[in-house]
Design a protein that fits this description.
This protein is of the alpha/beta class and 457 residues long. The protein has three domains: 5-35 and 222-277 and 388-456, 3-Layer(bba) Sandwich (FAD/NAD(P)-binding domain), CATH 3.50.50; 42-85 and 199-206 and 278-387, Protoporphyrinogen oxidase, mitochondrial, domain 2 (Polyamine Oxidase, Chain A, domain 2, Alpha-Beta Complex); 105-193, no CATH class. Helix content is 36%, strand content 23%. The protein contains 17 helices and 19 strands. Strands 6, 7, 13, 14, 15, 16, 17 and 18 form an eight-stranded mixed beta sheet that branches. Strands 1, 2, 9, 10, 11, 12 and 19 form a seven-stranded mixed beta sheet that branches. A two-stranded antiparallel ribbon has the order 3-4. Helix 1 (14-25) runs parallel beside helix 8 (208-215), helix 1 packs parallel to helix 16 and helix 10 packs antiparallel against helix 14. The two termini are 34 Å apart. Residues 436-457 are annotated as: Disordered. This is Protoporphyrinogen/coproporphyrinogen oxidase. It comes from Streptomyces ochraceiscleroticus.
């Protein structure tokens, strides 16, 4: 019996939509199945009374995101729809915000670092510059750092580098515990992305790319896939009370979800999936009746990082109306309060009112007049927020990437150990190339095919 379609894609986040887009361009029949009623995954934007809240991803660097920008151009997204982010980054220390995080001026101004720590920062940056060519964001396991964790790397320098730079960046942007996550993926990504001066956003919300991709695809929302079984030449998807068959299926969901759905993975697949753990993310959006937010020296900040050494409830405060004025109606403001990684597990089980109270109370330290500002609040959480990129995942990735093609493939930022939308886009293109090589190229176990797959990765 013939399969129902060429390729079934499970998950309508950026990885899944990119996979489907590439395969449809190649002439295959593709259908995307999404459990939620909307597309975008962790790049979804929430809209309410003229406010646009980015629930997951916040920014889009101009550097190091080649695949994403090529996709944006291919879809015909106007340049004005992807503007540069307004405002600077700050670091809280003691009683005030220090501007200039990740800027060249940090060596002089400190941006939260003491004088002795700045000397170590100069040493650290000089070492990275010498080894720059050895850092590849697509292959973080090949860097000179090996499986060194962020905390182990920081231990070679002044304590401030951990407490007021590496930990806040790891915690604020990735939700990581520095003792659990490897330094190589984070530094590879940051080296590629460059400083915040080159960061952009989508003017109408971070889900713009997802919406544009989905518009040209066969996407079925509100359709949960319960199991995927690989056969010799096809894959079966159990959906509701029926089964859909496809020549290939691509699991574009977080690794723990993929491990649960795939009934018969290979040994290398199972090993990597089990090593790819995720941290949850949680935010509270504050829809304000006037623009308010963190400031440094009178200047409004786009993002204030709040280090673990200073705060155990928040990891950062984003002023979305500073990021881009279209995020809030004229004369109003929008703040995003990012919960601290260690606090999130207990908050996920708490009533929303308690979550809002705890985060807004903590935020008053950084936005003193927040209590006098009229606001409405919403909670946004992802139990599988961001891949941790642990040392175990780094060790098992080479075997996973070198595996033979099969009827079931994977896509997601965790595949690249690159927690970003660029990682998702690249993984989608890689998954599409592996599907095409099996359906149109040499036999799945042919040596030439495996070498091509490695090179594509």
């Amino acid at each position: 019996m013939s399969p129902d379609l060429d390729v079934a894609v499970i998950g309508a986040g950026i990885a899944g939509l990119t996979t489907a887009h590439e395969l449809q361009r190649a002439g295959l029949s593709v259908r995307v199945y999404e459990k939620q009623r909307h597309v975008g995954g962790r790049m979804r934007s929430f809209r309410h009374d003229g406010y646009t809240v980015d629930e997951g991803a916040e920014q889009l660097p101009r550097h190091g995101y080649r695949a994403t920008w090529e996709l944006i151009e291919r879809l015909g997204v106007p340049e004005g729809d992807v503007p540069r982010i307004g405002g600077r980054l700050g670091m809280w220390r003691g009683t005030r915000a220090r501007p200039g995080v990740a800027e060249p001026s940090a060596l002089l101004t400190g941006a939260g670092l003491g004088p002795r720590a700045r000397l170590d920062l100069a040493r650290f940056l000089a070492r990275l510059a010498r080894q720059r060519a050895e850092f590849d964001a697509d292959h973080p396991e090949r860097t000179p750092l090996g499986t060194t964790t962020v905390k182990e790397l920081a231990g070679r320098y002044h304590p401030d580098l951990h407490d007021y730079l590496l930990q806040p960046v790891a915690g604020g942007f990735f939700g990581w515990d520095t003792a659990r996550s490897a330094a190589a993926p984070m530094l590879s990504l940051l080296l590629d992305a460059g400083g915040p001066a080159s960061w952009h956003t989508y003017a109408s919300g971070m889900d713009l790319l997802a919406r544009r991709l989905a518009a040209g695809l066969d996407v079925v929302t509100g359709s949960e896939v319960h199991e995927v079984v690989a056969d010799r030449d096809s894959a079966g998807l159990r959906i509701g009370g029926g089964v859909v068959t496809a020549r290939a299926a691509v699991l574009c969901v977080p690794a723990p979800v993929a491990a649960r759905l795939h009934a018969n993975p290979s040994v290398d697949e199972a090993a990597f999936l089990s090593a790819c753990t995720f941290t949850p993310t949680l935010k509270v959006s504050c829809l304000l009746d006037r623009p308010r937010g963190p400031r440094a020296g009178g200047e409004p900040l786009y993002l204030l990082l709040t280090p673990d050494a200073e705060d155990s409830v928040l990891s950062g405060v984003i002023a979305d109306h500073v990021k881009h004025p279209a995020r809030a109606p004229a004369g109003k403001g929008l703040l995003t309060l990012m919960a601290h990684a260690r606090t999130i597990p207990e908050l996920l089980a708490a009533p929303e009112r308690e979550v809002i109270e705890r985060l807004t109370k903590a935020a008053r330290r950084y936005v003193p007049d927040l209590e006098q500002t009229g606001m409405r609040n919403f909670v946004h959480a992802f139990p599988h927020g961001l891949p941790e990129a642990t040392p175990a995942a780094l060790r098992r990735r080479p075997s996973f990437m070198a595996r033979a093609t099969s009827p079931v493939e994977y896509a997601g930022d965790w595949v690249m150990l690159r927690p970003s939308s660029e990682g998702a886009v690249r993984s989608g293109a890689l998954a599409a190339s592996r599907v095409l090589s099996r359906l149109r190229g040499p036999r799945p176990h042919d040596t030439t095919d495996r070498e091509t797959t490695r090179e594509t990765a």
